[in-house]
Every structure is written in C-alpha cells, then in structure tokens.
Design goal:
The protein is of the alpha/beta class. It contains 14 helices and 22 strands. It is globular. The protein binds flavin-adenine dinucleotide and 1,4-dihydronicotinamide adenine dinucleotide.
C-alpha cells in the first residue's frame, strides 16, 4: 500500500528541504525524499550545499584564513606565534562537525514540522488517478512507494565532467575531493577559474600549496562587473598568490604519480605538472534516475527541467526548483523558489525577483554583487551614473587589517534608482544585503546617501559610494 501525501519533494538540498518545511507549515501532508549518503554511508540531509558545497567550503576558507592570519597578519598587532602549524585532520573534522550539526538540524526541523523524512532515490512512475506515483529505491531495492497530489523536483546538480579525465577524488578531484584532502599538496592544479576554483584554490594556497588555475575564458569572472573583476584578479594573483592562466585550451591530461596537464595558451603549447588536480568547470542538472522520460517530464537540451516563471513543469502539479532548473546555481535562489512553489500550491501569489539575487565569492577579499553590471547596462543602452568608494581609508577596515577594496553603486541617470551594487572588500558578503534591500524597495542612491550608517563600520563605504553617485562624496 502506497503512502499518501499532498506534496512529495524529491531532493533534500536547500531547495527541497525548505520547500518541504514551507509546504508542511501551510498545512500539507508532506514528504521529502533524499538520496545523499555521506562518506560513512549515512543519510545526511542538506544536499550539495550542506554536505559538499557552501557550508564546508566556508568552514575551510575560515580555517585557512586563520592560519594565514597567524603567519602574516598577527605580527602587525604585536602578536608573535612561533612555528604556527596546522593539523589538516583537525581542520577537516571541524568541517565535518559543522555539516553533521546542520544536517541533524534539518532532521529536527522535519520532525517539528511533521515532514516525512524518506531516504532513497525518488523516481516518477506515472499517475494513479489524480495522484503521482513516486518509487523510492535504496541500493537498487524498492524501499517505498508514495502517492502525491503535487511533486516538487529539487534534485540539484553535479560537477560537469571534463572529457579525457576521470575524477577519482584521490588525484583528480571534484568539489567533494577538494573539500576532503588529508594533506596539503605541494602543487595543486585547478581547471576552471570560476567560483569553486577560486574558493578552493584560495583555501589550499593559504595552507601552503602552489596553486595554478587554468581558465578557458579570456575574461576573468565574466559575469561580474569588470571593474571589480579586474581588481579581484590583481589581488588574487598578487596578494593571495594564485597563478591564474586565462584563455587556455586544455589538451591531454595524464595521471600517474604526478598529473600532467597539456594546454595551449596564446598559440604556445605548455604543460602544468601537479600533485593534485581539481576540476571545477561548472555543474550539470541531476535528472538521471528521476523517471523524466518515462512520464514525459520535459528537459531542455542541457538536461534542465523546463519550467515557467512559477517553477511549474510541463506536467500537471509537477514543479521544479533550484539547480535543476534555469537561473543561477545558488542555494538562496533554490530556497526562495522552494518557498514560492509551496505558497503557490497553497493558492498564494508569491514572486521571486531574479534581478535581486545576490552573488558572493568568498575569496579574501570577498567579491559580492547584486543587480546589473556596467557592462550589462551599456549593452542594454540604459543611461546610468556611478559612484565608487574605497575601503583604503575606512577606519573599521583599517582596524581589521583589511583596508582594501572598492564599492560601486550604479543608479539610473534620470530617476537615481539603484540598478546595481558591486563590491570587493572585507565582509562584503554581509554588505551586499543593503543593496538587495535597497533594490527590493526601489530605493535611489540618494536614499542610501541619506540613511545613517554606523561609525566606524564597513557599511560606511557603501554610504560613501552612494553619496559619490549623487556627486556629494564627503571623503572622496
Ligand atoms: P542540491 O543541494 O544539489 O540538493 C539536491 C539533493 O537531491 C541532493 O541531496 C541529491 O543527492 C538529491 N537527489 C538527486 N536526485 C535525487 C533523486 N532522484 N531522489 C532523491 N534525491 C535526489 N551556493 C551558494 O548560494 N553559496 C555558496 O557559498 C555556495 N558554495 C558552493 C560551494 C561548492 C563547492 C559547490 C559545489 C556549490 C556551492 N554553491 C553555493 C551552490 C549550491 O550548493 C547549490 O546552488 C545548491 O545546493 C542547490 O540546491 P538544490 O536544493 O537545488 O540542490
Ligand atoms: P563556474 O561556472 O563558476 O566556473 C567554471 C569555470 O570553468 C568558468 O570560468 C568556465 O569558463 C571554466 N571552464 C569551463 N570549461 C572549461 C575548460 N574546458 N577548461 C578550462 N576552463 C573551463 O562553475 P564552478 O566553479 O564549477 O561552480 C559551479 C557553480 O556552483 C557556480 O556557478 C555557482 O553557481 C555555484 N557555486 C557558488 C558559490 C558561491 O556562491 N560562493 C561557491 C561555489 C560554487
């Protein structure tokens, strides 16, 4: 006998688990089916983001930043620490502790909200009257059959493979392996200088590896505002010490004791020899095993589930959210879509504004933005004005020892409405929220300029950039 539900969510990442909680809060009898098992073979909720993505990467970024600070920054404060050492085992265990704490937390929230927590691979089997039938398998054996009025597909994404090389997570690593190395490699190669490459490259560089990134695109961080991207490139190569090679074409990769990566740059053939290689060239949607073909769930040519603006797929009462659908592959975007779908099922009229999805790259300094870049505004023919301000003289940044970076406010030339906020600097992952709020409330740069910002605080640089956009800079 099948278990009956109003809503079954397939996938327990930040899209799926949030959708399940919201659906349950709205009074639906809800189940969440998730297939992920941690390296110990135990089910662990939270998807890519919690288990092998956002959270563990930030844990390691912090550990490596602390180690770097002890070695390079503490002396400036008059603190000397002789022979600072890092125990990679302890660092990795700390990261795992954070994951299990949060994964257990999701399990607790499921209990609290009466979401049925079902472990296994969910597959759409067809319809039984008005209901969808979902089969759940674990290690190939059927463990459950569920029936649901609504299905929310939140199966996430996986690393995009690079033809000609096999990820074994021993020598050649994807994000899972990059987050679980047991020692610092002497020479680390990274294919793809995107978000994962830069974050993971920074971690292992700060711990002592020589890191070389090989990037196919000619432009560094092509999606970012290019003024900020150029400053980031300079800082990450000069200060962090990453060797970033742009515009390369990867050739043969041979894996032995050493890994040899042949590549072409500016017409010349070169070879990079490393001890470990991270492949981070983007991610692909997870739809294998979902039963999409069997039930006629429409996928696009790249394998994403095709959805409309409300995340509704081509089948009745089938929805899809997060990395498995169009749009940025970000945890907060997945969660917002999850909430919106649950509320739409409940008859509400939610809205997800893609123009105000914040982006953050957690390098040091951090890079963050929301809204349009200068390049986009130019391409769209929008007349804009801009104001920039620097962290160099900001009292709080100087006190922190991180007085480096820029904030740029872009506003409509006529109406002064904020169109984009771009920054590189200390803790800009937190500062970008001011831009998100301002844009959601359709604020002008004058609005930010007239709002009191605490002194001394990093947010004063946002204030000053907004004043500069209005030609009223006080410290510029
Ligand atoms: P996922 O988190 O991928 O979850 C999908 C879940 O569904 C997984 O548990 C999967 O095992 C399961 N599943 C798949 N198929 C089935 C099936 N048929 N049945 C049952 N279960 C299934 N984003 C940010 O916003 N900030 C960050 O700092 C950030 N850092 C990242 C760092 C790294 C190294 C990586 C790899 C990603 C990072 N991301 C970050 C991206 C973020 O992880 C994703 O955007 C987010 O996890 C997408 O959420 P999701 O719920 O759509 O899918
Ligand atoms: P990415 O899209 O950010 O970067 C991939 C890079 O690889 C691109 O610059 C691309 O030009 C390059 N590339 C592609 N093919 C190549 C090839 N054959 N040779 C050399 N370079 C090649 O993807 P990444 O870093 O894998 O991360 C996946 C996604 O995960 C990100 O797009 C982002 O959505 C999410 N993420 C978010 C984070 C955050 O929010 N802080 C952190 C890490 C990941």
């Amino acid at each position: 006998m099948s278990q009956q539900f109003d809503v079954v969510v397939i996938g327990g990442g930040p899209g799926g688990y949030v959708a399940a909680i919201r659906a349950a809060q709205l009074g639906f009898n809800t189940a969440c089916v998730d297939a992920y098992k941690n390296p110990e073979g135990q089910p662990s909720l939270g998807g890519t983001c919690l288990n092998v993505g956002c959270i563990p990467s930030k844990a390691l970024l912090q550990s490596s930043e602390n180690f770097h600070a002890v070695q390079h920054d503490f002396a400036k404060h008059g603190i000397t620490v002789d022979n600072a050492k890092i125990d990679i085992d302890t660092m990795i265990k700390r990261k795992e502790g954070i994951i299990s704490k949060n994964a257990n937390g999701i399990g607790f929230l499921f209990k609290k909200n009466k979401v049925a927590n079902i472990h296994g691979l969910g597959s759409l089997k067809g319809r039984q009257g008005e209901k969808w039938v979902i089969e759940v398998t674990d290690n190939g054996a059927v463990v459950d059959t569920l029936e649901a009025t609504h299905v929310i597909v939140a199966t996430g994404s996986s690393p995009r493979p690079l033809p000609g090389v096999t990820v074994d997570n021993v020598k050649v690593l994807d994000n899972e392996g990059a987050l679980a190395m047991t020692e610092v490699p002497k020479r680390l190669g990274v294919i793809g200088a995107g978000v994962i490459g830069l974050e993971m490259g920074s971690v292992w560089k700060r711990l002592g590896a020589e890191v070389t990134l090989l990037e196919a695109a000619p432009t560094f961080l092509g999606a970012a505002d290019q003024q900020i991207a150029k400053e980031a490139f300079k800082t990450l190569t000069k200060d962090t010490g990453l060797d970033i090679q742009m515009g390369v074409k990867i050739g043969n990769i041979t894996v032995g004791d050493e890994i040899s990566v042949a590549y072409e740059k500016d017409g010349a053939n070169q070879t990079l020899v490393v001890d470990k290689l991270i492949v981070s060239i983007g991610r692909v949607p997870n739809t294998a095993g979902l039963g999409a073909e069997a039930v006629g769930l429409q996928l696009d040519e790249r394998g994403f589930v095709v959805v409309d603006d409300h995340c509704h797929a081509n089948l009745p009462n089938v929805w899809a959210i997060g990395d498995v659908v169009r749009g940025p592959m970000l945890a907060h975007k997945a969660s917002e879509e999850g909430v919106a779908v649950a509320e739409r099922i409940a008859g509400q009229k939610p809205h997800v504004d893609f123009n105000t999805v914040p982006w953050v790259i957690y390098t040091s300094p951090e890079i963050a933005w929301v809204g349009k870049t200068e390049e986009q505004l130019k391409a769209e023919g929008v007349e804009y004005k801009k104001g920039t301000s620097s962290f160099v003289a900001n009292g709080r940044a100087l006190g922190l020892g991180h007085a480096q970076g820029t904030v740029k406010v872009l506003a409509d030339a006529k109406t002064d409405r904020i169109l984009g906020l771009h920054m590189i600097g200390p803790m800009v992952s937190e500062l970008v929220s001011e831009g998100v709020v301002a844009m959601e409330f359709k604020a002008s740069s004058e609005d930010i300029g007239r709002i009191i910002h605490a002194h001394p605080s990093l947010s004063e640089v946002v204030h000053e950039a907004a004043l500069a956009a209005d030609k009223r800079a006080l410290h510029g």
